[in-house]
Amino acid sequence: MYPTDLKYTKDHEWIRLGAGDAKVGITDYAQKQLGDVVYLELPAIGRTLKKGEVFGTIESVKAVSELYSPVDGEVTDVNSALVQNPEAVNKDPHGSWMIAVKASGGQDDLLDAAQYTDLTK
Hints:
Elements lengths: L6 E2 L4 E4 L5 E5 L1 H7 L2 E5 L6 E2 L4 E7 L3 E5 L3 E7 L1 H5 L3 H4 L7 E7 L7 H7 L2
């Protein structure tokens, strides 16, 4: 159910690590818990994040939740199209990245798809 090319956090964010900048979003489990997403607040490009630090907020018809950085790094891009159409998170949570980060550490304890599936049972 969860893409195997992503890594996951216990806070229900996903990250796609690669040769370039890593993309970050929230999992299908998280969007289902939130319900219909109506607003997204993301950081400025250039902001330095520490693993576990709040990088933004996501608001649904049910709740407002904080978004946590899965790694240390610098924000290199923000998905402004997603800010304009936050409901896309509900339609394609694993394809709707929120920020891109130049990761500089903190990847060691990320979960793989099987571990994340066990966490959300």
